[in-house]
Every structure is written in C-alpha cells, then in structure tokens.
Structure prediction request, 163 residues.
Amino acid sequence: MVRRMLAPLDWHRIRVLVEYGPGTGRFTFEALKRMRSDAALVAIETGQGFVEALRSRCDDPRLIVVRGTAQDVNRNLAEQGLGEADCILTGLPFPTLEAQEADAIIRESIRAISSSGVLAAYQMRSAIRPLLKRYFASLRSSYEWWNVPPATSTGRAVSGTDP
Ligand SMILES: C[S@@+](CC[C@H](N)C(=O)[O-])C[C@H]1O[C@@H](n2cnc3c(N)ncnc32)[C@H](O)[C@@H]1O
Prediction:
C-alpha cells in the first residue's frame, strides 16, 4: 500500500509535503527517503503519543511533526513559514469522522494545496469517494490487495477543480 501510494508522486517537484495522521510513521519514513534534500514534510497528528514517538525516532531536519488537527493545515503551514503544499497525503479515517469535520478538512486542504498540487488519500474502504467527488472534478483510484487489510487509494491533481 505504501509503495502504491508513493510511486505515482512526482518527488522532484514536491517541495512541501503535508501528511495528515502519520501515526507511527509508516508512510512518513518512506516519503522522507523519496523527498528532495531541500523539501519539508509537515506531519500533523492529533495523538500526543504518536507525536512524541515520531519526534524521538527521527532527527531528519526536513520533518516537522505538529500536534494538532488536519483542519488547521493552513495555520500550521503559515506558522512554519511554508507556502502552499505540493502534496497532501492522508490516511485519516474519514468514514469515522463527523461529516462536518471531514468536509472542513477537505475544504482546508484545497486552500492549502498549490494549483498544480495533489491530494492523495488511502483508506480501508472507498467511503471517502463521495466527499472527494463533491470537490474534485475527477478522481483516480486504485486498490491494493497485498495489504492487511486490503485498501483503496484515491488521488487527484487539484488544478482545474471547483472548490
Ligand atoms: C488510520 S491511522 C493511520 C496511521 C498511519 N498513517 C499509518 O498508515 O499507519 C490515522 C491517524 O490519524 C490520526 N488522526 C485522526 N484524526 C486526525 C486529525 N483530525 N488530524 C490529524 N491526525 C488525525 C490518528 O491519531 C492516527 O494516527
């Protein structure tokens, strides 16, 4: 699943990557391996334990671990002195979030991403599709069976969408 999600991303172009809900860093560390040396990865996580574990496990200066909610992505980028995100990677459990919160996170994400940027989402179910369809003109999805449990990935270049 990690390989499937990260392979299509244009790593030469990504200067600012935001990850929502890095948890134990399963995607974070693989993303860092692929990122440019001058890029930044802002990982936004609500769980204090995950935040502390990530900070203690990784001293890569490109990684900025922020305790907070994805909804505050724009404030976090501004506080870090970073511009728009070239990519937002999310594994947030959208089906379990309140509809209003999920909607607000996607709206804030659209504000945060550059006009040529990408939102890439992975889920155990495809329940995020109706939410993304509301905001994005077209979506590309794939399915990874070789994952426990099997999972869905959905991505979309933001340009040309109508938020
Ligand atoms: C399904 S786990 C994914 C963890 C990790 N990305 C992985 O693949 O192993 C979702 C993560 O999102 C975090 N989370 C939940 N709601 C969040 C929110 N609103 N903003 C940021 N992180 C959130 C949880 O604490 C958890 O670490």
In short: Residues 158-163 have pLDDT under 50 and may be disordered. The domain at 2-157 is CATH 3.40.50.150 (Rossmann fold). The longest strand covers residues 113-123.
